Amino acid sequence: PEFMRLVAEATSTPMKRSSHDIVPRALPYYTTWSNLYGDMFVYTFGSEVRLTITDPELIKEILSNKFGHFPKISPNAQTRDLFGDGLVLSKGEKWAQERRILSPGFHVDKLKAMVETMAELATKMLNDWERRIVMAKQPKSVDPLEIDVLEEYHNLTADIIAHTAFGTSYEEGKTVFKLQYHQQEIVREANTSIRLPGQSMLPTAKNLHRRKIRKMIENNLRQIVEKRLQSESQNDTQHKDLLGIMISAYKGQLAGNQKNLRMSIQDIVDECKTFFFAGHETTASLLTWTTMLLALHPDWQQRVRAEVINVCGSRNPSSDMLNQLKLVSMVLNEALRLYPAAPVMTRCTDRDMKLGNLTIPKGTVLSILTIVTMHNKQLWGEDANNFNPERFSEGIANASRHPMAFLPFSVGPRNCIGQVFALMEAKVVLCKLLQRFSFQLSPACVHSPTPFGILKPRHGMQIFAKPIDS
Ligand code: HEM
């Protein structure tokens, strides 16, 4: 009952808009336990026992381990349907090969070429806001237009990943995204209910429905892959976006020390599933929380806008300009610290071992609560729960801070492959937003951070936006 009370509180307490103390309310049940039981404690979920870890030294030991002693856990059938056997879930040699194949797709030079597309798609979204704001004023409505930025950013980041990673339009990928949202609901339900072993294999109505959705997603992705395969052979051109790289691996056309690496069509479909999903939900979360924080802190909104106008004027940002946006980076880092898109990571132990002062058996599930570490007052000071981007004025690395205190993208071999992509995208979108709109929260907005796997506001994030020159 205590747990359920804390969850209910976490998801339904209205935001104290005037307060600077903005502890995410999803935190209480993690932080309360940490305060009660320390950096390492055990809890049970059904028959499963989980060891929870928030100590930065232990986190380092686990995430930086190069020998695979802390593998990812085997996901349930629902999660596997969502991500496929792509980079997020795969293990061992399959993971290592595909990480090598895909890494060049995230090389800075490749990403620089995507900045213009990101800016154009953000502009399209903002033009639409402007159009809707003008329409809402007619004939004589007195109410300003309310915009749910969570939904807007979901669509935008989906559009961006579809264009930049797969050279396809959002329209083409739309069915996949829609079905993936539906699948996410199925995963959520599975992860919050206790299931018997083998239950997901039974031919129940729910399981049959789940399999049908998976097939529909895979068929859609296959069509996108096949269309590209055909266009490549017709035009004899090689697209070097993520899909192009994977198709080269399928055709055995990779060069240099990658020339022996191969991917099957099913491997490609699985990676597409992973990137369609992991590549946009997370960044949408970051943009949503950042917009909320800037709406709550008009002084920072003004400072950051002044920086953007100073560096970019009203032009689209270039990658060089993005590098000069120091305040924007500070704000994004602070948003990632307070509201990390991926608040918890899960691993297990591949053998009996000693961790800290505990001896733990093989197969123990480890819950790494980076969200708690990133709010730890001993690591971040008494104002750890407040929005204070100044703490990143020296950059991320700070001699006075533990190197594992800030982990929004994880560390070690399984860190986020899309980190630079995500930060570049978030900077471009913020830059365009600040150039054109000032914004504040709608009084209807409820502070409802909820860890649906990804930390998102349960009830959306409603703002009022006003074109700058009106
Ligand atoms: C892995 C965070 C954006 C693709 C991860 C992990 C974190 C993370 C914490 C490690 C998960 C774990 O070990 O359990 C974030 C955040 C993002 C973001 C906070 C945005 C603000 C992206 C984007 C892409 C992406 C834009 C792709 C374009 C991936 C992939 C992995 C991953 C494929 C698995 C890497 C591997 O295991 O080799 N991300 N991510 N992420 N992320 Fe991201």
What does the model show?
- The protein is α+β, with helices and mostly antiparallel strands and 470 residues long.
- Helices cover 52% and strands 10% of the residues.
- It has a four-stranded mixed sheet with strand order 1-2-7-4. A three-stranded antiparallel sheet has the order 3-11-8. The chain has a two-stranded antiparallel ribbon with strand order 5-6.
- A hairpin with a 1-residue loop joins β9 and β10 (454-457).
- α10 (205-235) packs across α12.
- The longest helix is centred in the middle third of the chain and has 31 residues, at 205-235.
- The protein is globular, with a radius of gyration of 22 Å.
- The N and C termini lie far apart (51 Å).
- The model is unreliable at 13-26 (pLDDT under 50).
- The protein binds protoporphyrin IX containing FE (HEM).
- Protoporphyrin IX containing FE is lined by residues 87-88, 99, 274-275, 278-279, 282-283, 286, 341-342, 345, 408-410, 414, 416-418, 421-422.
